[in-house]
């Protein structure tokens, strides 16, 4: 399908609603997302006729779905952590505490620091029980800077609750 005709007007999206994850064991994955990442289980529509769980926190939902037998899903079940793999990223308030908790849990992870224009962003990458990559970062330190002209009015309403005031001020200058 050609997407060329969409170049002039993007879809009218408001925000990210949820990430859906196929899991080998919904309960194990739910325990991970609740106890490690702090998500809260929420009511799931009864009309869904397959095992799963809905979780919510930080302005995003995660839908955990029980894998169907015999269906192949792509996961990274190796111990190797590739920081460029498909992943979901979360802001954090204390990256050292995140690392401490991962060490205590015996979880493998990679910690990186990315420097941009004198600003250091810290990242920690690790896997959920099915091999899906999770990133926890201090990405809010980087200001949002548009690459092309455009209306930045809607950006402020989409900013995460943890966005620093300095980043918001930087955005309002555009």
From TrEMBL:
<dbReference type="InterPro" id="IPR037523">
    <property type="entry name" value="VOC_core"/>
</dbReference>
<feature type="domain" description="VOC">
    <location>
        <begin position="15"/>
        <end position="139"/>
    </location>
</feature>
<protein>
    <recommendedName>
        <fullName>VOC domain-containing protein</fullName>
    </recommendedName>
</protein>
<dbReference type="Pfam" id="PF00903">
    <property type="entry name" value="Glyoxalase"/>
</dbReference>
<dbReference type="InterPro" id="IPR029068">
    <property type="entry name" value="Glyas_Bleomycin-R_OHBP_Dase"/>
</dbReference>
<dbReference type="InterPro" id="IPR004360">
    <property type="entry name" value="Glyas_Fos-R_dOase_dom"/>
</dbReference>
């Amino acid at each position: 399908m050609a997407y060329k005709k969409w170049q002039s007007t993007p879809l009218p999206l408001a925000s990210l609603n949820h990430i859906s994850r196929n899991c080998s064991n919904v309960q194990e994955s739910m325990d991970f997302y609740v106890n490690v990442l702090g998500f809260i289980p929420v009511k799931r529509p009864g009309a869904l006729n397959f095992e799963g769980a809905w979780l919510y926190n930080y302005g995003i939902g995660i839908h955990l779905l029980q894998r169907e037998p015999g269906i192949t899903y792509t996961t990274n079940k190796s111990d190797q952590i590739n920081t460029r793999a498909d992943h979901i990223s979360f802001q954090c308030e204390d990256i050292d505490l995140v690392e401490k908790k991962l060490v205590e849990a015996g979880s493998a992870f990679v910690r990186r620091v990315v420097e941009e224009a004198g600003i250091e962003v810290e990242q920690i990458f690790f896997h959920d029980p099915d091999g899906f990559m999770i990133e926890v970062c201090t990405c809010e330190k980087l200001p949002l800077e548009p690459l092309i002209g455009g209306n930045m009015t809607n950006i402020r309403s989409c900013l995460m609750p943890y966005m620093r005031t300095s980043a918001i001020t930087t955005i309002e200058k555009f």
